[in-house]
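User: Hi! Is it possible to get a structure for several chains at once, not just one? Here's what I have:
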Amino acid sequence: MTAAAVQIDGVSKIFNRGRASQVDALLDIDFHVDAGEFVSLIGPSGCGKSTLLRLVANLTEPTTGTVTVNDKPARQARLEQDYGMAFQQSGLFEWRSVVKNIELPLELRGLDRKARRERAMELLQLVKLPEFADHHPWELSGGMQQRVAIARALACRPAILLMDEPFGALDEMTREHMQDELIRIADETDTTVIFVTHSIPEAVYLSDRVVVMSRRPGRIVASIEVELGPRHEEIREAPEFFKKITEVREELRGIE
Amino acid sequence: MNARRTAVILTPLVFGILLILAWELFVNWRDIKPFLLPKPSAIWDEIVDNHTEIWNAAKETGTNALIGIFAGTAVGVAAALVASRFKVASELLTPLSAAVNAMPIIALAPIFNNMFSSTSAIPRRLIVAIIVFFPIFVNTLRGLLQVDATKTELMQSYGASDWVTTRKVRIPNAMPFFFTGLKLAASLGVIAAVVAEYFGGLQNGLGSRITQYAGATAYPRAWAYVTASCALGLVFYLAALLLERIVMPWHRARRTT
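Assistant: Yes, the chains can be modeled jointly so their relative placement is included. Here is the combined structure:
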């Protein structure tokens, strides 16, 4: 067995416990991600897939069970910046230039000015936006902003990248382009990725494994190995690709 | 762009000149008495004849306004920082500041005047500070709290402390809100400084001259001081505007794109 990037055992998450507004978001989840794996979480809206990601990120605590990230408690992993995170909204700081946005996590880590700038420029090369270093976020298109957000998430060379529908607000063409970019970046940086989405083709195209979740209270109902080999544009039109999409769709249908 | 800019400056200028011209002609035509409405040319003559005296009075009132605005702003920002950090403080300070704002603070001027010696400038500065506090506090607090959840969660994911999040995210986020408050405060502060002088105390500023000359039926001269007060308020407002542009160049660039 390879090293676990994320190990979740018997996790439940209940919001507003004991009150009329109680919500059982997640029930008895066991979930495991290998180092270097690309895993997508998919399910109907409100199924708790974002909550599961936030538990890994330690942005919320589980009601029961344990969350281990990089063999550490999730809280410690967060404080040591073991993971980087990107959301549907880029969350760029409009008062900082593009390069300074990427430098922020490095600044918080205490890197000196020169080292920060060097690393940030390296990341801008990686996401192919070096000429926009001194622009401000609002001067960039949605896709470009999202690329900056990904560069920022990778700034501290995290072992794990947590992504919550990062391409959800992009148009279809930009979205497909960003998917290819993400696969390239994840390969080049050897990063484990957990990716929340509600697009079946996106999940299948990106992932080594697609995890299907049920309606609330969220449970894991299937874990589908994709096995499509190295990705390239033609795969989007290959019969095996559509077969996998059908397989995932049927699992999702089963939930209804 | 340049043509638009010229239009932005020229339009109100031309309108203002026409308005003054219409005023002059109207007073001449209907033969209106100076104690009702003096002619702009008469007011202008008074301004020219008394310019040293007006300048000195404006300096006194301006100093009071400036010190009051500084003090009120400092306290308002500090209170907003505390209120944004502790929920209890916010629940305490918000209704309190609303109560202070509802108080006819100018009406307190005579009381304040009695609290200090009659040669003290403190009462009027205190009034300016209290009036300025509210717009600064309310706007700054809103800016400190209205941060996208994505941004605060990002800071959490970096393991940043509350104080670091305040410094790196909440304060820059609050800047545009703060300046909205400051621009309001700049004009309000000058009005408060002028009006506070109507209620006794030191007789050296624009407000005391207005009451003095209006009482002596020297209406054009009183109007000359009103004009100076107006100009002083404008100078303060423009100073706040300039400060905003220096401190937040990104904000202006964003609005023009």
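The mean pLDDT of chain A is 90. Chain A touches chain B through 22 residues (CB under 8 Å).

User: Great, thank you!
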